[in-house]
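Lecture notes, continued. The same structure-token format from the folding unit now serves as the input rather than the output. Read the line below as a description of shape only.
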């Protein structure tokens, strides 16, 4: 359990207490059939989400994100494949078993979906009433949940009197009412302004930390992923095109779509004046060196100049932070004999740095 509202999870322990798998999706396909028209929304998806993890799924509109969430809570029946949640294959449950299992798979929606005729207290109490929890217990539980989301003073208020962020806090408290195993958030912050988004994401992170709750965040916004997710899968046309640890995926994006998402939060573009300067040619090889983590502290440039008979002219450099990991890019022009330059490059690559050739003029 976290001692404070600031999450204590470090990169080494982010897989939760026992590191087991909470959600396992295997070869999931979803085809919508409307008359003679069929749409393949999910195409053979396989994905594992560990206990206690905040996993993100990012994709453009139409990528299949909502279809994936609806399959996870079985609001949509998969066309093929299996979904296992906490070692229980939910794709093979009877309707009755599913009704019970759904209580453990909570959902937070983009447009909150609150009951306007019920107070904040009444909204959070609703799933408990349905589950047949005794009244006294409901009261205690709702008060605890409202305290968790910071809305104790709003218990008697109706949703119409709340701000968007407060409505989503109610949505989150309601989702947590039945003590779920997983929390699915489908564009949960997409209707909120940036500041409110930040506070809701912080709340989700606190909840993840305090309750060790596994959270799946579905979004089209990169900053949501970089802010709180441990892992990410990039979804496009119903397929996962890239996945892994957030820092790994976004500091070394392989697919153009992943790169486009990275561009929205991190500037990897070469500034125009630098680009023009490079375009003017001249002898030498212009390379981009990308580095992550510790490398930002190593004097690699001075080393290659000392070790090899080359000159290194720094044209541009930047360092960013992704979560707590520093990473950056340096654009340098190497001049000297071709084989010396090649040896210098080899040395840099041997240091675990990523090298990309921008121009090579000799
Ligand atoms: N009920 C449905 N019937 C037919 N096609 C659907 C249905 N729901 C979604 N789709 C289609 O499936 C694809 C994925 O949609 P969706 O899962 O909503 O994507 P996202 O949430 O990433 O925007 C889209 O082409 C969409 O038009
Ligand atoms: Mg959607």
């Amino acid at each position: 359990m976290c001692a404070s509202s600031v999450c204590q999870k470090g990169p080494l322990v982010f897989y939760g207490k026992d590191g087991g798998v909470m959600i396992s999706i295997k070869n999931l396909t979803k085809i919508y059939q409307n008359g003679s028209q069929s749409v393949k929304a999910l195409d053979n998806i396989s994905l594992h989400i560990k206990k206690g993890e905040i996993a993100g799924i990012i994709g453009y509109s139409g990528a299949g994100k909502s279809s994936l969430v609806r399959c996870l809570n079985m609001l949509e029946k998969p066309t093929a494949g299996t979904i296992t949640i906490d070692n229980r294959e939910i794709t093979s449950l009877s309707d009755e078993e599913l009704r019970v299992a759904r209580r453990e798979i909570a959902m937070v929606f983009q447009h909150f979906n609150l009951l306007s005729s019920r107070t904040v207290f009444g909204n959070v109490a609703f799933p408990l009433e349905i589950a047949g929890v005794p009244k006294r217990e409901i009261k205690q539980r709702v008060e605890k949940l409202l305290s968790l989301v910071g809305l104790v003073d709003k218990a008697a208020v109706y949703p119409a009197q709340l701000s968007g962020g407060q409505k989503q806090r109610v949505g989150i408290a309601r989702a947590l009412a039945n003590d779920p195993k997983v929390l699915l958030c489908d564009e949960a912050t997409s209707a909120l302004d940036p500041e409110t988004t930040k506070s809701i994401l912080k709340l989700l992170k606190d909840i993840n930390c305090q309750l060790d709750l596994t959270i799946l965040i579905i979004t089209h916004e990169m900053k949501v992923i970089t802010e709180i997710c441990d892992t990410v899968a990039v979804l496009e046309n119903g397929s996962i095109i890239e996945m892994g640890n957030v820092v790994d995926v976004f500091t070394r994006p392989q697919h153009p779509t992943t790169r486009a998402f990275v561009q929205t939060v991190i500037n990897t573009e070469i500034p125009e004046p630098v680009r023009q300067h490079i375009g003017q040619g001249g002898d030498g090889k212009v390379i981009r060196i990308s580095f992550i983590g510790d490398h930002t502290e190593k004097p690699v440039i001075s080393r290659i100049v000392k070790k090899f008979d080359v000159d290194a002219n720094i044209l541009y450099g930047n360092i960013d932070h992704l979560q707590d990991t520093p990473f950056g890019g340096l654009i340098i022009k190497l001049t000297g004999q071709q084989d010396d330059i090649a040896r210098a490059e080899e040395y840099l690559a041997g240091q675990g740095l990523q090298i990309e050739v921008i121009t090579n003029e000799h």
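Point for the exam: The pocket of magnesium ion (ligand 2) is lined by residues 65-66 (CB under 6 Å).
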